[in-house]
Write a structure and sequence with these properties.
There is one protein chain. The relative contact order is 0.20. The protein has a single domain, classed as Sufe protein. Chain: A. With 131 residues, it is of the alpha+beta class. Strands 1-2-3 form a 3-stranded antiparallel β-sheet. It is built from 6 helices and 3 strands, in the order ααββαβααα. The protein is globular and about 40 Å long. InterPro entries: Fe-S_metab-assoc_dom. Belongs to the SufE family.
Length: 131
């Protein structure tokens, strides 16, 4: 994940958007930074329940730090996943749990894309990341 965008880069890209269309394009562009999961990795165990789109999340730990791989069948959700994962990847579980992910996401200018059902999915993703 060497080319994975930093939280600062993600925030800059999304906060620079002045319209819903620009935000959509930025999220689609961000989605390209998320490596696809293999078919074997898209299991029910890795699937996030409660998402409108199919979303899979794999949590890996290395020397006490957590790293995340994820995928979705929707480009928009893949972009949201990049934004969320950029906030937590490489941190310890405690640091992730201490991060107010909802507040961090609120600063990213993507709330107009989070319909009530999609918001429930994003909340399920945040809970999985902090578990």
């Amino acid at each position: 994940m060497t080319d994975f965008p930093t939280p600062h880069t993600v925030k800059q890209q999304l906060q620079a958007c002045r319209s819903k269309e620009e935000t959509f394009k930025a999220l689609v562009t961000l989605s390209k930074a998320l490596p696809r999961l293999s078919g074997e990795e898209k299991t029910e165990d890795n699937k996030i329940k409660g998402c409108e789109s199919a979303v899979w999340l794999i949590i890996e730990e290395d020397t006490g730090r957590r790293y995340f791989r994820a995928d979705s069948d929707a480009k928009l959700m893949r972009g949201v996943l990049v934004a969320v994962i950029s906030l937590v990847t490489g941190k310890t579980q405690q640091a992730i749990q201490e991060t107010d992910l909802k507040a961090e996401l609120a600063e990213l200018n993507i709330s107009s894309y989070l319909t009530s059902s999609r918001s429930n999915g994003v909340l399920a993703i945040l809970q999985a990341l902090q578990a």
